[in-house]
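Q: Could you write out the predicted structure for this multi-component system? I'm mainly interested in how the pieces pack against one another.
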Amino acid sequence: MDLKFLDFEQPIAELEAKIDELRFVGDDSEVNIGEEIERLKTKSRTLTKSIFSGLKPWQIAQVARHPLRPYTLDYIGAISPDFQELHGDRMYADDPAIVGGLGRLDGRTVMFIGNQKGHDTKERVLRNYGMSKPEGYRKALRLMRMAERFHVPVVTLIDTPGAYPGIGAEERGQSEAIARNLFTMARLRTPIVSAVIGEGGSGGALAIGVADRVLMLEYAVYSVISPEGCASILWKSADKASAAAEAMGMTAERLLELKLIDEIVPEPLGSAHRDPAATAQTLQNALVTHLRELVALSTDELLAQRASRLAAMGAFRDG
Amino acid sequence: MSWFEKLMPSRIKTERRTRSVPEGIWLKCNQCGAQLYRAEVERSLFVCPKCAHHMRVGARERLAMFLDPDSEREIGERLAPTDPLKFKDSKRYRDRVTQAQKDTGELDALVSMTGKLKGQPIVACAFEFGFMGGSMGSVVGEKFSRAARYARENRMPLICFSASGGARMQEALFSLMQMAKTSAALAELAEAGIPYVSVLTDPTTGGVSASLAMLGDINIGEPNALIGFAGPRVIEQTVGETLPEGFQRSEFLLEHGALDLIIDRRNLRDEIAALLAKLMKQPRPAD
């Protein structure tokens, strides 16, 4: 099985393997098989399109966690080549599971902040699989405060399974660190745009996700708990993750319907990792559109809009 | 049940009494095992007279013991949950809600009131842990936000007694967003210069701990309350070791700087009234 492909993508993997084989034959054969390759490529594209148009929420969650999916620093690198990373919370440590720093977007200085996962085993361990500790959220808070002071917009990229559930994290106030970020972002006197680029996992995601606009990549997911966690609590069995993913409505499409996010950023055929450069470009365009609208507002108007947006969150009956 | 208990009347009916502490003339302390006379336990605010264990109390009992008698008026009392996702796990969310409403007499897991504390007008909220583990969904978020807004508009201090397992999974992302909504309401309250006192009671974890409960100008824990972000079982699974004795208890949080104070329930009224009087620059409250 090819690791580049998820299990439901295996028909595509087989076709791609056939194409590679033919190419190999083509190299040292006099027979012209270009036509056959073209035919198979078209078939592969059609197949990919049909598989990806019918993905179930649980399959989308797997795409969102795909090991080849671009991560925060990949997007920032593509969007803002002169990005300079800034480190540390000034209190305890530098948490590599959250990155942040100054860059440029649309000719404007921007503070980028995002969850960071690793591309290989070594980096995954270093980045703690994208799960932050309090020092990570406090670094993000420090950078947001700096952005406010210099009136620089904040762009956050969300991609985390959740906040790290460890002993040290609890000792250093994981709850307080997350809560403080929600509290501060709600009233931060500069525009904030967030984009969920992969996994939006619970409070650990929201801790950098309170914003004037929330975007989601087409195959990103965003939920209050992982489908596995939800299944093991409510169904008493982690095997029901697929049912939990369905029930929670964690896909971009569903969350847009529920008006919990503002825009879906489309991904290339077969999802972001098939063409990271194109994905970064689409994401950049979406960020720029929203930032232009937000920087045009006065700070008081911006905060009033953010407050009414947050106050309107919820579905209930009154009387 | 002993033969003696069987002879006793099984229930003394009280209107809208919540059942965090089981009813009956006698009750047993689940910490030291002492058989206690219910009326005596009520007088000591459900703190065991033998071992000072703080038993869990329902939202209405909590507010009744905290506010001055006959001073209270409820805020958002008609708010009730809907089921935007038509959520169904092993049971339907609708049915879980109906059952919880029947069990507790509440429409959802938070009660908000305005009333007086030693004559000082305040706004107070309390979580009903018996309602789906005190979980925070849209109704809890809205009720809390309305209470915070009422406090801001009327310049009254806000006090919240939390007891919650966290966000309500059956409302999925709606419940996650309540963390942002309640924190935003508190940020506006803080901007207006109104004090907010958060009392964390057993247990306060997950999304409630990681939002409104940890945002007090003053954070107070009841003795030995479980307070944390992740539940102890999740942490044990993650780190693969047994947790030390007292981990995530109030005393542990005080030691690590997350709480200002630990206060015995029987002194909460006095202590909070004294703190608020100082923050509101008022004379010392009468005893």
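A: Regarding packing and overall arrangement: Chain B touches chain A through 62 residues (CB under 8 Å).
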